[in-house]
Amino acid sequence: MEELKYFYDTNDYIVYEKIGNGNINLVFLHGLCSSRKTWDDIYPKFDLNKYCLYLVDYKGYGNSSVPKDKEYSIFDIANVITKFINEVIKINYVLIGHSLGGGIVLMTMVSKKVNMLPIRIIVIDPACYMDSKKDIPLYVRGLGVPIINKIGLFLASKKRILKMSMSNFMYRDNVRDKHVARYTTILSQKRNHYAFIASSKYCIPTNYSTLIREYKGITTKTLIIWGENDPVLDYKYSFRLSKDIKNSKLVILSKCGHACQEELPDKTYKVIEDYLDKILKIEIYKPRVKI
């Protein structure tokens, strides 16, 4: 698949793939220490005559450029994604984010900088409430500590060790060899280690507590998907988020950990497709409201 580049400033760019010819644009945003490859189990299921898929690598991730700065908070990355939406996607789009990507979707909404509202937003086990240190996953905190991050990333990229530790991320029965191989490849790419570490150190914006209060002002209809056995972000946060976003639908997947789209791709796809199919047939051609 051809890689495309979007330059968000003079020197730096994000890499993305564009797949399909449909008039509904689905923008997929991945999690921390990850890449667009984490959508490989689910994206082939979408009808490419109905949808056009955009699989994005963030700043510093995958094959995107890796600026050596401190602008790696979820709000900073959301600003890059906002530029990408305004200049490349423009209209008729749905934002779909997993984990860190879910947090970026929410920050994109509360920043109110997109020219046109998305048709819908979908968040999967999103990083949505990290307003105290205990809410930040332990492995994220660890990556922000010198020495620990270098040793941790080195060890995590070793296939044997990664296979044993995947149950700290996924529901044990859902771990497959393809998942281990995927994350071994991702974590072995040393060019991305700066971004992984910077994202963990600077993930939380300074005004985060103010920003999360803005969730209550999100008016776009939202689908929230959460793994009941998520060992990274407890599914109790799903009820809080569903309460904050009034126009939301919550689906809890049993026997599923933090990565629904990889662990249970068939079920996750069906939830997403059923949700979109019912609402977009009527609304896709309505003009969208500018924020």
Structural features, described:
By secondary structure, the chain is α/β, with parallel strands linked by helices. It is built from 11 helices and 8 strands. The chain has an 8-stranded mixed β-sheet, sandwiched between helices. The longest helix is centred in the C-terminal third of the chain and has 19 residues. The chain is globular and about 45 Å long. The C terminus is likely disordered.
Q: What's a quick, concise take on this entry?
A:
By secondary structure, the protein is of the alpha/beta class. It has helices at 74-89, 100-111, 138-143, 148-156, 159-165, 177-188, 193-202, 208-213, 236-244, 260-263, 265-283, and strands spanning 4-7, 13-19, 24-29, 51-56, 93-98, 120-124, 222-227, 248-253. It has a single domain (4-283), classed as Alpha/Beta hydrolase fold, catalytic domain (Rossmann fold, 3-Layer(aba) Sandwich), CATH 3.40.50.1820.
Number of domains: 1
Outline type? globular
Based on the structure given, which CATH architecture is correct?
Answer: 3-Layer(aba) Sandwich
**Biggest sheet statistics:** 8 strands, mixed
Q: What is the averaged pLDDT score?
A: 87
Termini separation (Å)? 34 Å
Strand order of the largest sheet: 1-2-4-3-5-6-7-8
Name of the level-1 CATH class: Alpha Beta
**Which structural category fits the helices and strands?**
alpha/beta
Stated plainly, the CATH topology is called Rossmann fold
Beta content: 15-25%
Write out the CATH superfamily name: Alpha/Beta hydrolase fold, catalytic domain
The ordered string of helix (H) and strand (E) elements is EEEEHEHEHHHHHHEHEHH
Helix content: 25-40%
